[in-house]
Design brief:
The complex is a heterodimer. Chain A is an all-beta fold. Chain A is built from no helices and eleven strands. In chain A, the strands form two sheets. In chain A, strands 2, 4, 5, 6, 9, 10 and 11 form a seven-stranded mixed sheet that branches. In chain A, strands 1-3-8-7 form a four-stranded antiparallel sheet, with no helix packed on it. In chain B, β7 and β8 form a beta hairpin. Chain B is globular, with a radius of gyration of 14 Å. The chains are: A mainly beta, B mainly beta.
Amino acid sequence: ETGVTQSPTHLIKTRGQQVTLRCSSQSGHNTVSWYQQALGQGPQFIFQYYREEENGRGNFPPRFSGLQFPNYSSELNVNALELDDSALYLCASRGGRNTGELFFGEGSRLTVL
Amino acid sequence: AQSVTQLDSHVSVSEGTPVLLRCNYSSSYSPSLFWYVQHPNKGLQLLLKYTSAATLVKGINGFEAEFKKSETSFHLTKPSAHMSDAAEYFCVVIRLTGFQKLVFGTGTRLLVSP
């Protein structure tokens, strides 16, 4: 158990819809990042939040957006869903020391039809 | 830019035999390298990490990896496979300056037969 929880675990949407995925970080962790893992691929970095501010972003379009709340929980929002957005979305948190270790949740599996 | 290449998409071993999962890296400076494991329907878990200290790194569950700069490799090994080792393994390089970003390889699926 990493202490990182994500919801929902599975969901199905149709093309063009919007989705919100949620993440509760491990206690005391003020940094959260989101990754997209397509089937058969390694996770790809979407963005990172530190103390409610986005401070790093991967190669994803603006329709992928996020929020981090004062309790360090986080949301990933995806607008105008496309078929290629079907993937496992992973949330990861870490504390203040930049040791390189991230604590991952079990993910939210999104299917876009 | 940093990247990693996992040379095998699937590796099959018998229980009790050695495991070798291969990873090569590319980095413009001394990298920090990791191996993560992903069991079915589970989140990613850190197995071990190299951060420029000892070149032979020991991790959890009997795994270890050796950093070889001359070969730009960071292969994962285990002397004796166990059924519970069956999972997806990811070699990862990390950028530690500025915001932290993990760059994952494409993964190697380890299959362990009785």
